[in-house]
């Protein structure tokens, strides 16, 4: 409630009288004129505080149980309506608390100033419960951090090459196949992790509906007629450099050479090796 409103003795007196015993039409008109000097005043809040002030007196008697229960219920209703405005903005995570309501003695009114002191106490009691709670609720709203940028195959290749122990790094060499002309790059393979990447520049873009590239890994522990399938891949149009993850279909024991061939869409189980576009002999780096 606006503190200036509480300092208006005549207005407070009329509000309390209205709540306790009723006022005349002339007094009602006077109260409306006085309220007009406080734009934005919460009429519901004013009425509840005035009702509480009307219970204040100098002859202190215990508040009847029925009246005390009604005051508690009214206070709980007022607080629940206030809370709704906060919980619409932030999810409630704190346990429900009982509202603080002070019991006040019932008796005759002696003047506005004792009522003002009681009103201040009542507002402070409600505010001490409500506003810290509102602050906690709002502070619990956290904007999640943006998701991390996905790591690219090029970045993974660089990390593997920089941190892998005994990583193979072999440069591609050209063959007599016309599609091999101008192809450069290298292959990086970590045999312990069974992970690696191929890097190409100058390798022509392909139409996946007509043909695809396929990697073969020659293993010293296997018959060279049956190299390990390292996966099928494509080169998109307009790419100046491509980095392709190696997808070995079985465990590689001791790689000695890598070869890239041109195959039909989807690849083959055993390559005829008619079109070998790149070769790289394994050497630990």
Can you give keywords for this protein?
alpha+beta, rod-shaped, 35% helix, 4-stranded antiparallel sheet, 7 helices, 2 domains, 285 residues, Immunoglobulin-like
Question: How would you briefly describe this protein structure?
Answer:
It contains seven helices and eight strands; from the N terminus they run αααααααββββββββ.
Structure description:
The chain is built from seven helices and eight strands; from the N terminus they run αααααααββββββββ. It is of the alpha+beta class and 285 residues long. The protein has two domains: 3-139, no CATH class; 153-281, Sandwich (Immunoglobulin-like). The chain has a four-stranded antiparallel beta sheet with strand order 1-2-3-6, covered by helices on one side. A hairpin with a 4-residue loop joins strand 2 (184-190) and strand 3 (195-201). Helix 4 (43-53) packs across helix 6. The model is unreliable at 89-96, 99-110 and 128-138 (pLDDT under 50).
Helices, strands, pairings?
Elements: H1 3-6, H2 9-20, H3 25-35, H4 43-53, H5 65-87, H6 112-139, H7 153-163, E1 168-171, E2 184-190, E3 195-201, E4 212-219, E5 228-233, E6 241-245, E7 255-263, E8 276-281
Antiparallel strand pairs: 1-2, 2-3, 3-6, 4-5, 4-7, 7-8
Helix pairs in contact: 2-3, 2-4, 4-6, 5-6
Overall strand count? 8
Strand content: 15-25%
Q: Assign a percent range to the helix content.
A: 25-40%
- Mean pLDDT score: 78
Oligomer: single chain
- The value of Rg in angstroms is 42 Å
Biggest sheet layout = 4 strands, antiparallel
Question: What distance lies between the first and last C-alpha atoms, to the nearest angstrom?
Answer: 77 Å
| H-E order | HHHHHHHEEEEEEEE
Secondary-structure content class: alpha+beta
Shape: rod-shaped
The largest beta-sheet arranges its strands as: 1-2-3-6
Tally the structural domains. 2
- Identify low-pLDDT runs: 89-96, 99-110, 128-138
């Amino acid at each position: 409630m606006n503190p200036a409103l509480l300092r208006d003795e005549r207005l407070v007196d009329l509000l309390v009288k209205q709540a306790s015993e009723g006022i005349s039409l002339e007094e009602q008109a006077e109260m409306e004129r006085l309220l007009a000097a406080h734009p934005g005043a919460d009429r519901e809040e004013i009425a509840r505080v005035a009702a509480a002030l009307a219970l204040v007196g100098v002859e202190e008697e215990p508040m009847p149980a029925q009246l005390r229960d009604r005051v508690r219920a009214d206070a709980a209703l007022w607080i629940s309506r206030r809370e709704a405005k906060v919980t619409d903005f932030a999810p409630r995570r704190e346990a429900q608390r009982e509202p603080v309501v002070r019991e006040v003695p019932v008796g005759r009114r002696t003047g506005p100033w004792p009522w003002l002191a009681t009103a201040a106490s009542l507002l402070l009691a409600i505010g001490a419960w409500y506003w810290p709670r509102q602050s906690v609720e709002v502070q619990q709203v956290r904007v999640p951090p943006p998701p991390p940028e996905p790591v690219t195959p090029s970045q993974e290749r660089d990390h593997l090459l920089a941190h892998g122990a005994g990583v193979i790094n072999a440069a591609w060499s050209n063959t007599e196949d016309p599609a091999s002309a101008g192809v450069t790059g290298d292959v990086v393979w970590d045999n312990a992790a069974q992970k690696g990447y191929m890097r190409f520049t100058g390798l022509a873009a392909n139409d996946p509906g007509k043909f695809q590239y396929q990697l073969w890994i020659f293993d010293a522990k296997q018959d060279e007629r049956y190299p390990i399938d390292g996966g099928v891949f494509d080169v998109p149009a307009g790419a100046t450099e491509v980095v392709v993850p190696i997808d070995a279909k079985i465990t590689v024991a001791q790689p000695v050479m890598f070869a890239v061939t041109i195959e039909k869409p989807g690849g083959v189980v055993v390559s005829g090796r008619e079109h070998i576009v790149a070769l790289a002999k394994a050497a630990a780096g």
